[in-house]
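This part of the workshop introduces the protein records we will be handling. Each record describes a single protein and holds just a pair of labelled lines. Instead of coordinates, the fold is spelled out as a row of discrete tokens. To make this concrete, we reproduce a full record directly below:
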Amino acid sequence: MSTSITTPPRPKRALPPLMALTDAAAERLRALYAKGEQDKLLRIGVSTKGCSGMSYDLTWVDGAGPGDETVTDKEVTVLVDRKATLFLIGTTMDYEVKGLSSGFTFTNPNEKGRCGCGESFHV
């Protein structure tokens, strides 16, 4: 008599959201979408550049392309270049105003380090 033991499949672990927006980022994007960038969407990608190898690439586009993932958070939509998704999973986009400068910043759990000037990163 033979007995077989079957192991139940492991439950799948939920993936973190591709990207999230802070309240400040959502508010700034709403303002940009309502004024100068009407009828456009922000596409977020990753390009090869800088001393650490990669940097965030933000461009305005007329609409989603075949290589874009759509992310909607806080009722604001941004696009993520599909080639960048593995580098951006779990990233939070913020908008900061510091002294005389302002801009979007990213808190990316996949980053392993940044260059000294903070313009590029590596995973």
Notes: Residues 4 and 10 are 18 Å apart (CA to CA). The domain at 19-114 is CATH 2.60.300.12 (Hypothetical Protein Aq_1857; Chain: A;). The beta strands are 19-21, 41-48, 54-61, 68-73, 76-81, 91-98, 101-107, 113-114, 121-122.
